[in-house]
Design goal:
Elements lengths: L1 E4 L6 E7 L2 E6 L5 H19 L28 H11 L4 H15 L14 H14 L3 E2 L2 E2 L4 H21 L28 H10 L4 H11 L3 H6 L5 E8 L4 E7 L5 H4 L1 E5 L1 H13 L20 H12 L8 H12 L5 H8 L4 H5 L6 H12 L25 H10 L16
Antiparallel strand pairs: 1-2, 2-3, 4-5, 6-7, 7-8
Length: 428
């Protein structure tokens, strides 16, 4: 192997032969030791390629072969792959599968990027889609697209991000995932409701609601279960006690098995008097395994949109808050329960997988804060054990000699008390 400088060049080059073929190339460095290391590495690479341990390097300027080229699908071509993956990964969550497939179709409704490959979807294209979606991603009315909220646009963006991450992390189709920025809460997205039913509003609600909305409202207010858990509730999840427990207030047990995420949904709740009356009536009326059944056919489970339609009709009959509904009743129960238990017990009762989700349901109200300090005022405080006049703090305990002892010491030593001399304000 030879390392040398060509005439007129300041860079070292190497030359060596292997199996009758001569290899010659510049190292691109002016340091001889670095050039020798590069030459040695080049020879080792040639030997490994000849032994089949490494792929040979393509010739400079040569196009990659068809086998080495990686096909990157367009957003439309990738739809079938994404739908198949979501259908398999979320097989038990039909609502989630439907959500992702419908949201992906919304992505394809934006024409300017339907022909782009996944690698060509960058931040500028995503921002253009966001601006279009806010104005035209809604349903057609009179032949024109309607606008949607920023929260809805965030759902489309979440689907896009999930598809790109799957293509990058699992399938290795693209080298990177662009930044997909969703609208924040400060920008008007992800609105959270703090509405809590008052006793008067709750009475008006259940007094006007039709069945099965009335029964669902009572269960939500007394146990905090959500709508999807009610729709999935079956008779094998309800058990009544023969002997009343808890001073006659605990009349049964309600086991939640279906409706939320698998890790968080299974929990046991207490059945009170109002819940028992509702559950007995629903189960007696049902001709199938489900507790809630269709008003038209008792042998079929209740459809997901029946309760929504009944709530819409109810809001037209009575004057109520725009956020009033089953979720607000669940919110009311959890807010009330949060005043009497710790956050982790509340998380279990709510069926939340994350404690941060539970904290959204805890809203300290003015009367709750006042009640807290009244309860704390009834507790025995440490300073109450010490007599303290005119102060709320513990008095300092003086362990030194008394005034009488000091007088005896002064007389014994022929000492007099010091005189206090008032100094005039004279300049120093």
């Amino acid at each position: 192997m030879k390392v040398f400088k060509r005439p007129g060049s300041s860079y070292y080059a190497y030359k060596f032969q292997y199996r009758g073929r001569e290899y010659y190339r510049s190292t691109g460095t002016e340091n001889r030791r670095e050039a020798e290391s590069i030459a040695a590495a080049a020879r080792v690479r040639i030997v490994r390629q000849a032994a089949g341990l490494e792929e040979p390097e393509p010739l400079p300027g040569a196009l990659p072969t068809e086998d080495s080229r990686k096909h990157i699908p367009t957003l439309g071509e990738f739809q079938s792959t994404f739908d198949e993956w979501v259908g398999t990964a979320k097989a038990e969550q039909k609502g989630t599968v439907k959500f992702y497939r419908e949201s992906y179709q919304k992505l394809l409704d934006y024409g300017p990027w339907s022909h782009l490959t996944l690698a060509e979807l960058e931040e500028p294209e995503i921002e253009a889609f966001k601006a279009w979606a806010l104005k035209q991603a809604g349903r057609r009315r009179n032949g024109k697209r309607t606008p949607v909220s920023k929260t809805t646009v965030n759902r489309y963006l979440a689907t896009l991000r999930k598809a790109l991450r799957y293509a990058h992390r699992k399938l290795k189709i693209i080298d990177k995932v662009p930044v997909v920025e969703q609208y924040s809460r400060d920008e008007g997205a992800e609105r959270e409701t703090d509405y809590v039913f008052s006793p008067r509003e709750y009475i008006d609600w259940i007094g006007t609601a039709a069945e099965p909305l009335r029964s669902a409202s009572i269960l939500a207010r007394h146990s905090g279960i959500c709508r999807n858990e009610m729709l999935k509730l079956m008779k094998d999840c309800v058990r009544f006690h023969r002997v009343h427990q808890g001073n006659g207030k605990v009349l049964g047990e309600l086991t939640i098995k279906r409706g939320l995420k698998r890790r968080a949904r299974k929990r046991k709740l207490v059945v009170d008097r109002e819940m028992k009356a509702v559950l007995e009536r629903l189960m007696k009326r049902s001709d199938c395994e489900h507790v809630f059944t269709s008003p038209q056919d008792r042998a079929k489970p209740l459809g997901p949109w029946v309760l929504e339609e009944q709530m819409a009709q109810l809001r037209k009959k009575i004057k109520t808050h725009p956020d009033a509904g089953l979720h607000a009743l669940r919110h009311t129960f959890l807010t009330e329960a949060g005043e009497y238990t710790d956050p982790f017990t509340l998380q279990y009762v709510a069926g939340h997988d994350n404690i941060k989700t539970t904290m959204r349901y805890v809203h300290p109200r003015e009367e709750a804060v006042e009640k807290l300090f009244v309860r704390l005022g009834d507790l025995e405080r440490p300073e109450g054990r010490v007599e303290c006049k005119g102060s709320v703090q513990n008095p300092v305990q003086w362990d030194g000699p008394s005034d009488t002892d000091i007088a005896k010491l002064l007389s014994a030593g022929n000492l007099q008390t010091a005189e206090v001399v008032e100094l005039a304000d004279t300049p120093s």
